[in-house]
Every structure is written in C-alpha cells, then in structure tokens.
C-alpha cells in the first residue's frame, strides 16, 4: 500500500480525528459531572463516525478485515 501524500489528506478530517482522540482521553480522566455529561453524548459516536469515514478497504482483504482469515 502506498503512503498517502500530505497533499491527498483532508485537513478537516485530520482535525476531527485529533479532537475525537482528545475527547476519548478526557473521558478516562476524572472530569466534573457538568463537563463529562455533555461530552458523553457525542464522544464515542464521533469516534466511530470519523473512524469509519477515514477507513479504506484499499490494501485490505475482506477476510482479514473481518477477522475470518
């Protein structure tokens, strides 16, 4: 699989990936309830949404991607 050049990357997706990682890390720290409550509603859905958008089947076989091979 060829590495992605910086010109092919979408900066908004990279920013969203950084934010979602920071939110998941914050979820594993002792935050006050008034701050952690609202973050809980979209922290993991955002993680899965951005991960799914950034995933590529190129270079992957369906057998190994689903763990059956």
Automatic annotation (TrEMBL):
The chain crosses the membrane at residues 12-34, 46-66. One of its GO terms (molecular function) is acyltransferase activity, transferring groups other than amino-acyl groups. Residues 11-58 form the Acyltransferase domain. Keywords: Acyltransferase, Membrane, Transferase, Transmembrane, Transmembrane helix. This is Acyltransferase. It comes from Limnochorda pilosa.
């Amino acid at each position: 699989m060829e590495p992605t050049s910086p010109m092919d990357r979408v900066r908004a997706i990279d920013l969203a990936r950084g934010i979602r990682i920071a939110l998941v890390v914050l979820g594993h720290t002792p935050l006050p309830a008034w701050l952690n409550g609202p973050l809980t509603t979209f922290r993991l859905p955002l993680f899965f949404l951005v991960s799914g958008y950034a995933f590529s089947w190129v270079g992957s076989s369906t057998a190994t991607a689903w763990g059956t091979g």
